[in-house]
Design goal:
The protein is of the alpha+beta class. It has 2 domains: 145 residues, Transferase(Phosphotransferase), domain 1 (Orthogonal Bundle); 32 residues, no CATH class. It contains 3 helices and 10 strands, in the order E-E-E-H-E-E-E-H-E-E-H-E-E. A 5-stranded antiparallel sheet has the order 1-2-3-5-4. Strands 6-7-8 form a 3-stranded antiparallel sheet, with no helix packed on it. It has a two-stranded antiparallel sheet with strand order 9-10. Strand 4 and strand 5 form a beta hairpin. The protein is globular and about 45 Å long. This is Protein kinase.
């Protein structure tokens, strides 16, 4: 864990993702999720608790642990992105050979016992060294989504992420939309945060 000491707010990592509540940067074999909103911190805290529960049940092998967390960031291991198949990231959790039995059991425990909400979204997965799926983003519960995230998104406080054509570069990609009346249809690469 000595390498974690070198990950500070001034260290420059490689940007790899931006959600509605957390920004993700890669630092060698780690990712650092920076909290953009208090819900991001709450998600990471829940991920830590959920992982500890999975660990006690011996269902943690295909779920990314939280290695460090403080008031601004959480650190997890880096896993390779799931390659797109003609732009489609869909995962068939029943037939995909990258889904282990342990992961299936972990998903059911998270859904049934911990109210985990978006664990079937393929963007929440990556691949380990053996090419098996790893759940990397799992801290949103259904109650949190309905009572906290959704109202903030409807008010335009938190962005909703949707596919659309960027009005600047013309490429169809993820856009961050702040409420239904948000006129700015640019992607992150073209300057929209």
């Amino acid at each position: 864990m000595i390498q974690l000491l070198h990950v500070t707010p001034k260290t420059v990592g490689k940007f790899i993702g931006l959600g509605s509540t957390r920004k993700v940067d890669r630092f060698d074999q780690f990712v650092v999720k920076t909290f953009l909103h208090p819900l991001g911190k709450k998600q990471s805290y829940l991920e830590q608790k959920m992982y500890e529960h999975l660990y006690k049940e011996n269902l943690h092998a295909n779920v990314a642990p939280v290695l460090h967390m403080d008031e601004q960031i959480c650190v997890q291991p880096y896993y390779r992105p799931v390659p797109a198949d003609l732009g489609n990231y869909a995962i068939d959790f029943e037939t995909d050979p990258r889904v282990t039995d342990s992961l299936k059991q972990a998903i059911h425990l998270l859904k049934d016992e911990m109210d985990c909400y978006d664990i079937f979204d393929s963007s929440n997965y990556a691949l380990n060294k053996e090419g098996k799926l790893m759940l990397i983003d799992y801290g949103m519960t259904y109650e949190m989504y309905m009572t906290e995230w959704l109202p903030l998104a409807r008010q335009g406080i938190l962005p909703q992420i949707s596919m659309g054509q960027c009005e600047s570069c013309g490429v169809v990609k993820e856009l961050r939309i702040y409420g239904e009346d948000d006129p700015d249809r640019r992607c992150v690469s073209c300057g929209k945060i």
